[in-house]
Amino acid sequence: PPPPSAPTTGKNITNGSTGGHKIKVVCRVRPFLPTEYPDDSVKVESSHVLRVSNYRDPEKDICYNFDSCYGPEADQQTIYDNDVRFLVQNIFHALDTTVFCYGVTGAGKTHTIQGSDDDPGIIPRALQQILDQTRLRQDISYEVTMSYYQIYKEAVFDLLCSSSSTSDCGSAQSSMGLPIREDANRNIFIAGLVEQPIASYSDFAAIYGAACKQRKTASTRLNQHSSRSHAILTINVQWTDSARSKSMRGRLHLIDLAGSEDNRRTDNSGRDRMAESSAINKSLFVLGQVVEALNTGAHRVPYRDSKMTRVLQHSLGGKSVGMMIVNVAPGERFLQDTHNTLNFATKSRDIVNKPVVNEVLDSRWSVAAERLYGGTGQARQAG
Ligand code: ADP
Ligand code: MG
């Protein structure tokens, strides 16, 4: 293999955090819904600080620090332009980037990452940006593909593969789901997953629209709540660097995580629901352990202990640049989950990522790594 070289675009490799390549953590508090009684238990104090009432001691609010903090008035465009646009650009520097939304059911994860036709979220905006960018360079021919799948009860299900599809992926998709494998170069991949070429935005809109419907239909058919599955959309961009005669590739993962609520406090009457919540708890529990291991520099990071963390491996301390959007539902009703969510998120700020430029050589990846270190972020008590 060729000797490792420094990333060619070091200056542009950024996740926006000061002092290193940590996972950037952004907080977004959604507005109160018409059905809710507004209170002021959660307040955005500044563009970096969230103040939350302390149910244990009403005299002492707790303040949490973030790279960015958005209140109910922040719109999709503002969040995208401030915090997502330049991350997406990393794909053209041959880096893997992951954005995931974490929070309780109803906190605004799907609104943030997917959005609606009237108010599009990160996924459609990212596709637009990527496709626009590929048109800027007439001398380079970019190949854009996408995959979209969910992880439910520790099994992987393709969302670009409807039962009416003429391809044979329908039959391959048993209730067991698709297997996650590792190639000789330790790249994680999902065997049999559809990788759909995307030539234009209208291509994307048709495929993505159908997939979102498929996500809903599948949840009805499997008697599942989509809030209990993780939905992962991956965009691949591949091109040839003619100056270096090398095939390059960048990837972007956009992830709508399952609800982070404590399932012990929800009504798990049926057996199936019990199996569901334990699988979800396992994934999020392992995610917490992975975060802990990375923070403390533990020798063993338990990525392999759940499907979700295996898939997220490169976004958490691995090859890619990452960002977590912590979605928060306002109001006293959510306070305990809100503190749990924010404590988890504050841990994630300490992860140091090692961006790696990917070169595809005869379908094998050669890897050039640069280690960069950052500081720490912590919750602090406010008087
Ligand atoms: P989750 O995916 O985390 O369960 P949703 O994205 O489905 O939550 O949001 C729950 C409800 O709140 C939906 O009705 C959604 O439209 C609304 N909502 C979430 N975030 C916002 C926001 N920033 N502005 C307006 N409505 C929002
Ligand atoms: Mg959702």
Oligomer: single chain
Helix content: 25-40%
The biggest sheet, with number of strands, parallel, antiparallel or mixed sense and barrel status, is:
11 strands, mixed
Quickly give the structural class: alpha+beta
Using only C-alpha atoms, the radius of gyration works out to 20 Å
What's the helix-strand series?
EEEEEHEHHEEHEEEHEEHHEHEEE
SS field, number of helical segments: 8
- Outline: globular
The set of bound ligands, ions and cofactors reads: adenosine-5'-diphosphate, magnesium ion
Low-confidence stretches: 1-21, 163-168, 361-383
Q: Based on DSSP secondary structure assignment, what is the total number of beta strands?
A: 17
Global mean pLDDT: 77
Beta content: 15-25%
Distance between the termini: 57 Å
What does this structure look like?
- The protein has helices spanning 76-89, 109-113, 122-136, 169-172, 201-221, 271-296, 307-312, 335-348, and strands at residues 24-29, 42-44, 49-52, 62-65, 68-70, 96-102, 143-152, 155-158, 180-182, 188-190, 196-197, 230-241, 246-256, 321-328, 356-361, 364-369, 380-381.
- With 383 residues, the chain is α+β, with helices and mostly antiparallel strands.
- The protein is globular and about 65 Å long.
- 41% of the residues are buried.
- Residues 30-31, 33, 103, 105-111, 227, 327 line the site of adenosine-5'-diphosphate (ADP).
Short description:
With 383 residues, this protein is of the alpha+beta class.
List keywords for this structure.
binds adenosine-5'-diphosphate, binds magnesium ion, 8 helices, alpha+beta, 11-stranded mixed beta sheet, 383 residues, 27% helix, globular, 25% strand, disordered N terminus, 4-stranded antiparallel beta sheet, disordered C terminus
